[in-house]
Amino acid sequence: MKKLLLTSLLVSLLSCKSTNTCAIENKDIVFEKCPEDGTCTLVVLKNKKLNVLSDDLGSLYFSLSDNEATHVFHYQYKRNVPEDVQDGQHIEEVYFEINANETNLTIENEALQQTKMIFGRHCYCKGQAGFFKVNSGTLQVKKTTAGFEIQSTFISKEVPQIISSFSGTAK
Description:
This protein has 171 residues and is mainly beta. It has one helix at residues 2-14, and strands spanning 29-31, 38-45, 48-54, 60-66, 70-79, 90-99, 104-108, 118-123, 130-133, 137-144, 147-154, 165-170. It is globular, with a radius of gyration of 20 Å. The N and C termini lie far apart (57 Å). Residues 1-23 form the signal peptide.
């Protein structure tokens, strides 16, 4: 009886499959600029909203929520690190949001905050990591039959940066 119960329990546990609830769309990417010592990705998160928040210490963080009226773009540079090096990781990323029906957008400097653009730097670099609002630079987004053509240059006044521009087409 115990063997039958144990066998039934094992069969039921092994036959379970988790569902994938995270859907990232449109990962076909063509990059024109990416530092040679790393990899770059550009992801379009359709029907998402970028919520930029700050904690009690004034540090920025963000969350994403569902919103059919907007798309969020995430560009990431990840430096290649030898496996035997600890604390050598270095990631820089940019998040911004546009209206879902936007076909041609060109903005610069303070107007970048209309897209809630933030720059993130993640590394073992004390006092020089975190997320920061981008208020200096340019952003061009054009929707074509090939996808979203994106070009951006920006400067973070708070921390040093490796990436100061990126361009690519996300399908």
